[in-house]
Amino acid sequence: MSTLKIAIQKSGRLQSESLQLLKSCGINVENGRDQLKVTIGNFPLEVLYLRNSDIPQYLEDGVVDVAIVGENLLVEKGNKVKIIERLGFSKCRVSLAIPKEIDDNKLSYFQGKRIATSYPKTLEAFLKKEGIESEIHVISGSVEIAPNIGLADGICDIVSTGSTLFKNGLRETQVILQSEAVLVKSLQIKPAQQEILNRLVFRIQAVLRAKNTKYILMNVPNDKIEQVSAILPVLKSPTVLPLAEKGWSSLHSVIDEGTFWNVIDELKLAGAEGILIVPIDKMVI
Ligand SMILES: Nc1ncnc2c1ncn2[C@@H]1O[C@H](COP(=O)(O)OP(=O)(O)OP(=O)(O)O)[C@@H](O)[C@H]1O
Ligand SMILES: O=P(O)(O)OC[C@H]1O[C@H](OP(=O)(O)OP(=O)(O)O)[C@H](O)[C@@H]1O
Ligand SMILES: [Mg+2]
Question: Which positions fall inside the Histidine biosynthesis HisG C-terminal domain (predicted)?
Answer without folding.
Answer: 210-282
